[in-house]
Amino acid sequence: MGALGMVTRSLTRHYSKKTSGPFKLHHQYQSWRTLILEPLSSESVQVRRLSDADSGIVEVNLHRPETKNAIGNEMLRGLRHTFETLEMDDDANVVMISSSVPKAFCAGADLKERKEMTASEVQFFVNSLRSTFALLEALRVPTIAVIEGAALGGGLEMALSCDLRICGENAVLGLPETGLAIIPGAGGTQRLPRLVGKAVAKELIFTGRRIEAKEAMSIGIRFESFFVLCSVCALYVIHQHSALTMSHATGLANYTVPAGEARPKALEIAREINSKVQELLSLMILILRIS
Length: 291
Known about the structure:
single chain, alpha/beta, 6-stranded mixed β-sheet, 4-stranded mixed β-sheet, 10 helices, 12 strands, globular, ClpP/crotonase-like_dom_sf
């Protein structure tokens, strides 16, 4: 019922926007809110809303080339703001997280910044990183990590917080923190075992071993999806937050494609998800209008 409630609330919010009168004012408010809030995002976190047939797809682009997208305080603020904004955005149906930096998705936390922090500042940063990835994991829309190159430490933890992971063949995944006497503190020790099992997760965390995309495909996980049934007609929505009815084996990466082709593959999947949401929305609007 929790999953059905989430879908119903999402569709109801969309429907309320499609009606005359209040819709125009609501749409204006959404536009004003976007104009006001989005400039506050950091320069290292760029938000792009696709248009026309791809309307509903949002791409969050990591852009900190001088550090291979290592997460410092400024990027962390940008990520948190972005996820909070997307949670309130009724126009977003699916979110892609990608990188504009060649051969790097995200190199993890910025260790140079960390060296300059006090113990209390480090603890605050780690807590903030953990809660920010929890926001990502809890977003009401499906999320896709587009991984080309390195996704290490906090970078992998961010990808683990997404529903799907699409990897180029040049992707390298790992939690190497233990080699620096640091415990993965942003949810990796919880999310990785859920995906690959405790034994494999322990080996990867204890050794800090890095794996390539092909191996990530072969590591067994349980990839959850669910069917949502409407009393009027059968509807379905794909989402990975809930463990209802259906599961099948896959890998730490949902797809591995040739290097440089992760984004096109992710966009293909995003379009498929987006079309399903639009179909559901159109059908729900029809049901509500005739009821």
